[in-house]
Amino acid sequence: MAVRPGLTAERLVRAGAELADEVRFEHVTVSELARRFDVKTASLYSHLKNSHDLKTRIALLALAELADRASEAVAGRAGRDALTAFAAAYRTYAVEHPGRYAAARFPLDPQTAAASAGPRNARLTRAVLRGYGLTEPAETHAVRLLGSVFHGFVSLETAGGFSHSAPPAEETWDWILDALDALLHSTPTPAGTTEAATP
Amino acid sequence: MAVRPGLTAERLVRAGAELADEVRFEHVTVSELARRFDVKTASLYSHLKNSHDLKTRIALLALAELADRASEAVAGRAGRDALTAFAAAYRTYAVEHPGRYAAARFPLDPQTAAASAGPRNARLTRAVLRGYGLTEPAETHAVRLLGSVFHGFVSLETAGGFSHSAPPAEETWDWILDALDALLHSTPTPAGTTEAATP
DNA sequence: GCTGTTTGCCTAATGGTGTTAGGCAGATGC
DNA sequence: GCATCTGCCTAACACCATTAGGCAAACAGC
Q1: Given CB atoms, is B88 within the 8 Å cutoff of chain A?
Q2: For B109-144, how does the pLDDT look when each residue is reduced to its tens digit (9 = 90+)?
Q3: What one-character-per-residue DSSP string does A110-159 give?
Q4: Is B152 an interface residue toward A (CB < 8 Å)?
Q5: Which domains does chain A have, with CATH numbers?
Q6: Model confidence over A20-66: pLDDT tens digits?
Q7: What is the pLDDT of residues A63-88, one digit of tens each?
Q8: Between chains, do A178 and B167 touch, taking CB under 8 Å as contact?
Q9: Which of A23, A84, A151 has the most B C-beta neighbours within 10 Å, making it the best mutation to test the interface with B?
C-alpha cells in the first residue's frame, strides 16, 4: 500500500519526548505514540522492547539535554555567575519541557543510570561549586543541597504550588539563589563532626 | 453466600494507602484493591467515584497525616529546635511511608487542595519560621525554600539518589539543617528589591 | 530486471485495568 | 414476616501492553 513510515527507535523516542511535554510523562503510551505515526501499536515493538524501554529512553534523552544546557550555561562562568546560570538552565528546561523534566526523574536501574548523563549532571554541579572552595565532605553535601533545592523548587512550581499565592515564583527563585550564594560563601561546619569549631 | 465484606470508602482509602506504601503510589489500582478485599472490581464503584477519586482521597489522607506529625513535632518548640523537629517529621514520614508521601504530591484541583491539609502544612512551616523573625516578603520566600529543600531532598533520597555514594544521606541532612538555620538567622535581603541595603 | 532474502508493518489473539448498567440477595425497618 | 433498600455480583465495553505469525516492500546479488 502506502510507503513505509520509516520508524526508528530514535524518531520514536523524540516523538515520545514531545508527547510527554504535551500530556505529562506518566500519560505517555505506546498506543498514543503509534497513533501519532499513523501506525498500528504492535508495529512499535520492532523498535522498542516495551513501554518501560520507551520511558527509559525518553529519560536518557532528557538527562542528556539537561546536561547539555547546564554545560553551556556554566561554560566560561564561575562563582555566583555560574550558580545563577546553572540554576536558570535547570529551571528553564523544566518549565519549557515539563514532560521531559519528569522523564529525567524516571527511576533507572543502576547500570543504565551509570551510563546516562546523570553523572555528567552531577559533575557539572561540582564544577559550579568549585568556585566556592569547599572542602570535601562539605562539597558533596552542597552538591546534594543544590540538587534538592532545584529539584524541589521546580517540582513544586510545575505542580502549581506557588501559582496562587502572593510573590511570583520568580522572586522567590532569585531570593533563594542569593541565599545559596551567601550560604556557600560562609562554608558552614558539618554537624556531628568532632572537630571543634572554635578551639 | 458469604457474609458481606462491609466495604466503606474510608476502609478502602486506608487500604489504598497501605497498598501505596507497598507497591508505589503510581501502581495503586482499583483492581488490586478489590483483590485485597476479595471482592470484584466493579463493587468498589459503589464507594468510590473512580480511580482518580481513590487517589485523591489517599492524597488527602497523606496530607492530613503529614500535618498531624508536623504539628506534633513543632508543638512546644521554637527556632532551631522547631526546624529540626519539623524537618525530621517530614523526612521520617516519607521514609516510613513512601507511597503515602508520593500520594501527598498528587495534583489536586484547586478546590480540593484548598480544603485539604495542605494549607495547614503551610501554616506549620510559617510557624517554624516565626522564631527567626523574618519580615514579610522574606518569610514567604523562606517557606518556599524549606518546602523545596525538604521535598527535593526526600524525593531524591527515596529515588535512591544518595544511596550509592560516599557520605550517608543522614549526614547531609544534618548539614543542610545547620545551613538552613544559619541562613535564616542571617536574613538575606531580597534580590530585585528597590530598598538600598546600605544607605 | 529478475530473484531470494531480509525486515518492517500488519492482523489476530490474550490478558490486565477502568468503568457503566442492571440484577439479585442479604441486611434493615416496620 | 414482609417490604425495602443497599451492596456486591455478572455482563459488557473500551483502552493499553504484549506476543506470534504473515505478507509485502526494500534491497542485494547476479
Answers
A1: no
A2: 999 999 999 999 999 999 999 989 899 899 999 999
A3: HHHHHHSSHHHHHHHHHHHHHTT---HHHHHHHHHHHHHHHHHHHHHHHT
A4: yes
A5: 9-186 (1.10.357.10)
A6: 999 999 999 999 999 999 999 999 999 999 999 999 999 999 999 99
A7: 999 999 999 999 999 999 999 999 99
A8: no
A9: A151
